[in-house]
Specification:
Elements lengths: L1 H46 L24 E6 L5 E5 L11 E7 L8 H4 L6 E6 L18
Antiparallel strand pairs: 1-2, 2-3, 3-4
Length: 147
Amino acid sequence: MIVVAIIGILAAVALPAYRDYTIRAKMSEVVLAGAGCRTLITEIYATETPSTAPIAGTWGCEVAAGSGTRYVNQIETDANGWVFITARGFDNPDIDNKRIRFVGWSASGNPVELAADMGKGLVKWTCGPDPALNPMPLRYLPVACRK
């Protein structure tokens, strides 16, 4: 009887933790979907001038709504080259249609701005929930993306 109770308690603790782990594993596809955009935008920031820089939605790595992968619904960019990825296919209202964002950082330690940093390059990228629109809950993001 004691063994059954212990197994029941362990199952009650382990199942939610396992569910969150599998969601974070699937979420890695969403995070990796931004890798191509990050590489492309980093290259553009290193080689272009403000007069030749793309505008929002024309950086060349966007994915239209509904035409992404199993877990990626859409990839968008703004005028500064920030990347926004919308998730889908998790069958979880806490995740589906929620967004994460990638922000490039300049050598001055500030988020990049098209006019000020074009031609100077990016130093790093950070990712996390998009605070402006449908933010992804932190607990579902990989550890490297909880900023």
